[in-house]
Amino acid sequence: MNIRFAALSLLLPFLAVSAASAQAPVLPGQLLYQKNCQRCHGANGKAGLNGAHDLTKSNLNAFGRTYLVTNGMGKMPAFGKTLTPQQVQQVVAYSLTLR
Ligand code: HEC
């Protein structure tokens, strides 16, 4: 089970990227999230490391999150220079799926 699960989680982002062009961007943001957000927010959004907020309890909608991720706030870094607007949109869409 462990090895299968590990293999699956490695595969998923790649599957998601190929599906992204055709479908709503839900999964492509997962890879971006793991790379850019997980170290503070944790895999499930609840970790709250480095003063980060629990994303599962956030009331911010996609518009507010896009602004915050692009421009940063307090200890939250701005990603407007490291991510394209499309990547920001994808990672925000993924963050909205965390419950
Ligand atoms: C260096 C740690 C760090 C990283 C990396 C980080 N964040 Fe944050 N995040 C924070 C902190 C700290 C706050 C609280 C900011 C404040 O209100 O002062 C926050 C707040 C947020 C909020 C607002 C939550 C609320 O209060 O409603 C969202 C949404 C969010 N982050 C999404 C992301 C996303 C998406 C990424 C990756 C692109 C990311 N964060 C990467 C530290 C981080």
Structural description of this entry:
With 99 residues, the chain is mainly α. The chain has a single domain (2-97), classed as Cytochrome c-like domain (Cytochrome Bc1 Complex, Chain D, domain 2), CATH 1.10.760.10. It is built from five helices and no strands. Helix 2 (28-36) packs across helix 5 (85-97) and helix 4 packs across helix 5. It is globular and about 40 Å long.
Number of helices: 5
**CATH homologous group name:** Cytochrome c-like domain
SS-derived structural category:
mainly alpha
Biggest β-sheet description: none
Distance between the termini: 24 Å
Going by CATH, the architecture would be Orthogonal Bundle
Q: What best-fitting shape do the alpha-carbon axes yield?
A: globular
Task: Kindly provide the radius of gyration, computed on alpha-carbon positions and rounded to a whole number of angstroms.
Answer: 14 Å
Keywords: Electron transport, Heme, Iron, Metal-binding, Signal, Transport
Domain Cytochrome c: 24-99
Protein name: Cytochrome c6
Organism: Hymenobacter arizonensis (Siccationidurans arizonensis)
Question: Which terms would index this structure?
Answer:
99 residues, mainly alpha, Cytochrome Bc1 Complex, Chain D, domain 2, 5 helices, 56% helix, globular, binds heme C, Cyt_c-like_dom, Cytochrome c6, iron, iron ion binding
